[in-house]
Amino acid sequence: MWLRTDQWLRTGRQVQPALWARLAGLADTAEQAWRQPDQGIWEVRSEGRAFTYSAGMCQVALDRAAAIGERLGLPGRTTAWRASADRLRRVILEESWDEDAQTLSAHLDGGGVLDASLLALPLRQVMPADHPRMAATTTAIAKHLSAGDGLLHRYLHRESSDGLSGDEGAFMLCSFWLADNLTAQGRLDEAEELYASLCARTSPLGLLPEQIDATSGEFMGNFPQAFSHIGIIASGVNLARARAGART
């Protein structure tokens, strides 16, 4: 919904009162709920915890609601949302930071458990990709969650219980998130090399799966997978724009 609203605003159109009431309600809920335990983006079957990614998405709701209200002069708690968004950004950087591991972690209580969903935070503008703590986390994820040849696991089962048995393949979307972070950090050659390796994994029809067996290259999970195709498009656009900017 937030993306659609942003696209709507870019056309110069207005947000109608009924929609604004819904958006304001979502922002108010996010302001109160960000620390509540949940199952995170991956919908784990284990006990709920305060996931860093979930807190980040609450920050997005507050930030975008404030931006819409400010831009259009709409009634509401715009000033409070802006203050809460800024505070929540600081909280995420502080409370998810693991001093021993020197990385952000999957949960707000720290603990050093890495999760590839952390790579999505800069892509949603929760924090800059080149923030020292985020940059350190990106490097750690690329190494610790690597399945080889540019592929990434979402998390390691031996470290992060999800309530499911068995192992899984490398999750394609996570590798595109890594490429996006490298691009945003100005590491364009690395991003381009990774992106090319991922594109080379498409089927003869140019389709991608949800997961890949890192050993055999076999496709796993849903096929074709929309997440993976969103990733290949977004990463390609981001890289092309960065290359164009670097030439000017």
UniProtKB/TrEMBL annotation:
GO molecular function annotation: trehalase activity
Q: Which domain of life is it from?
A: Bacteria
One Pfam family recorded for the sequence: Glyco_hydro_15
Tell me one GO biological process term: trehalose catabolic process
Q: Which InterPro entries match?
A: 6-hairpin_glycosidase_sf (IPR008928), 6hp_glycosidase-like_sf (IPR012341), GH15-like (IPR011613)
Q: Where is the GH15-like domain?
A: 10-234
PANTHER family, per this entry? Answer: TREHALASE (PTHR31616)
Q: What is this protein called?
A: GH15-like domain-containing protein
